[in-house]
Amino acid sequence: MLANIFSQDLPRSKVLTVILVVILAGLLATPFIFPGARSLNVGAKIAVFIVLAASYDLMLGYTGIVSFAHTMCFGIGAYGIGIASTQMGPTWTAMAVGVVAALLLSTVLALGISLFSLRVRAIFFAMITLAVAAAFMTMASQLSDWTGGEDGLNFKVPELISPAFSLSDEKFLGASLDGKLIAYYLVVVVSGGLFLLMLRIVNSPFGRVLMAIRDNDFRSEALGYRNVIYRSLSSVLAAVFATLAGILYALWLRYNGPGTTLSFDIMIDVLLIVVIGGMGTLYGAVVGSALFNIAQGYLQDLLKLAHGNIDTIPVIGALFHPDRWLFWLGLLFVLSIYFFPFGIVGKLRAGALARKPTAT
Amino acid sequence: MSNAGKVLSDAPILETRGLTVRFGGHVAVNAVSCAFHRGTLTAIVGPNGAGKTTYFNLISGQIPASAGEVFLFGENISHLPAPLRTRRGIGRAFQLTNLFPFLTVHENVRIAVQARANVGIKLFSLWNSRKDLIGKADAILEEIALAHQRNVPAMNLPHGDQRKLEVGMMLALEPEVFMFDEPTAGMSVDEVPVILDLIKRIKASGGKCILLVEHKMDVVRELADRIVVLHNGTLVADGAPAEVIASPVVQEAYLGVAQKTKEAAR
Ligand SMILES: Nc1ncnc2c1ncn2[C@@H]1O[C@H](COP(=O)(O)OP(=O)(O)OP(=O)(O)O)[C@@H](O)[C@H]1O
Ligand SMILES: [Mg+2]
């Protein structure tokens, strides 16, 4: 039963299981054990980025195709909600229109790019996605009447999930029972569901064909599979899930702008999350997203703390200056890629396998 | 070729007409016309670089032909890409082992079984839930004597086992035309019989058309109903094994040379 929910693709490592349980429990309990807007933001972002990174892994890790248009779909989802809300008002109908329109646009774009370029070569696909994503970014900032340009859009969401809504004036375990809390659980629960759905897809007969194509596309064709169909479908699915992640993110932030969902910086973040977590494992997205977002959210604080104690020592003090957080993050990543070439999940699974070599 | 006058039921399963491919100025396969019939094992021999593998590639669609046509069951399939030719019954085991390195032995076969079963694009069913396909893959592992390596990633197999798996994947496709490209190359002496027995069993099951590229003349003598000799991309001899092997031209120029170089190489 539990195994089927996880599509019979269990973590296969005790340490990994513990880490995943801690992440899940942490996400679910955050409103009560770490009350405050900041920790809720980090929690929601972890959940959204699990979906975003896992959908990227579907393409990169499972199918072996590199796309730079993934955050474009993330952005389409977020703009779908933002634009629908500003144009039609913060109703559930508007949200539904935004969701449908965003999913349609992403699907059409992903399918178009795939059919146009995947016939040729996978590397051509990467270049086309780069071009389309860049064009889309320019368009988003040009159409400022709709998108708010570089400033982005502040918008309202339906009352039930907006901070103004209150379930009760009483606080429960230190958390106010308001629309923000409902929005938080909406994001976390839907993200969890989407993750399980992706886990099912990669463990379906279709998913195994994707892995076969990734491993040896010459042989998969020779066996009778038409790679272009499978690759295109994989990229469309990835686009759909990225769009859904964008929708969740917009519902949570009630803001969207180029720097929040569309930019190449986020594309790089996603790439790092997938690679550090472990490509082609899907669980890597969970571990990577938690690690990355916690680091991004709290590394600066940690450095501030350290800096306060040693700011008198010349070079070291400067090195631990809070503004250096990006440097430390970069160092962390380089080291982790060096020590875990197959990502954290790959490392943990290999370790578990080595400890009980007979149990394959 | 002496097909003329034969009854319709004996029409060739596979036929190439004037099949040609040029790589730059080099003609690797030169106007090869040949028909292959049901229940026959045809050995294709010739020295290294004769164009045997390239001829296979033209038939199964891995390389587009410069000229000429391929017919399967009388239908011109020259315009079809490789996957569609496979779906129509052309099976191929490659000379250079060609596996899915990160998938297990069982998964490699299973992918092929699934291709044959034409499961289609099932997104939400579980890979592990199709017991029929799993059982079929396991049966094939028994047949190629690889059941003990079932859950090992293909890349970790020793060379001989990789060759067996290569053949197992073709078997899983249940093709009408079996194309073996030096299936026993690089195998140890005790492993070779597994493959040879398998080929014999396919042959005995009847009705299939088998093409076998093989340098070892003892194997060819044992298995072949007919021998086709390629040299510099051209078909230079075609006939019953005894005839072809005995023909002085072939003996001198090709078979002797091919055998000697192979033997010298080991
Ligand atoms: N893709 C290609 N591009 C250019 N030349 C090629 C290509 N494939 C094969 N050739 C050339 O065509 C000729 C025939 O090669 P092929 O591999 O068909 O020989 P073969 O009969 O299978 O030899 P072997 O017994 O060594 O396997 C060789 O000269 C080879 O170099
Ligand atoms: Mg060859």
Task: Please describe what this structure looks like.
The complex is a heterodimer of chains A (360) and B (266). With 360 residues, chain A is mainly α. Chain A is built from 17 helices and four strands. Chain A has one domain: ABC transporter involved in vitamin B12 uptake, BtuC, CATH 1.10.3470. Helix content of chain A is 75%, strand content 4%. The longest helix of chain A is centred in the last third of the chain and has 28 residues. The radius of gyration of chain A is 21 Å and the shape is globular. The longest helix of chain B has 18 residues. Chain B has one domain: P-loop containing nucleotide triphosphate hydrolases (Rossmann fold). With 266 residues, chain B is α/β, with parallel strands linked by helices. In chain B, helix 4 packs across helix 5. At the A-B interface, helix 8, helix 9, helix 10 and helix 11 of A face helix 2 and helix 3 of B. The structure holds adenosine-5'-triphosphate and magnesium ion. The site of magnesium ion has 4 residues of chain B, from helix 1.
Question: What general outline of chain B do the C-alpha atoms trace?
Answer: globular
The parts of chain A where pLDDT drops under 50 for at least 5 residues are: none
Total DSSP E strands of chain B:
10
- CATH fold category name of chain B: Rossmann fold
Domain count of chain B? 1
What is the CA-CA span between the terminal residues of chain B? 36 Å
Question: What characteristic shape of chain A results from the CA principal axes?
Answer: globular
For this structure, the CATH topology of chain A is ABC transporter involved in vitamin B12 uptake, BtuC
Look at the helices and sheets of chain A and give the structural class: mainly alpha
| Structure annotation, total helices of chain A | 17
Order of helices and strands of chain A: HHHHHHHEEEHHHHEHHHHHH
Helix content of chain B: 25-40%
Largest interface: A-B, 32 and 37 residues
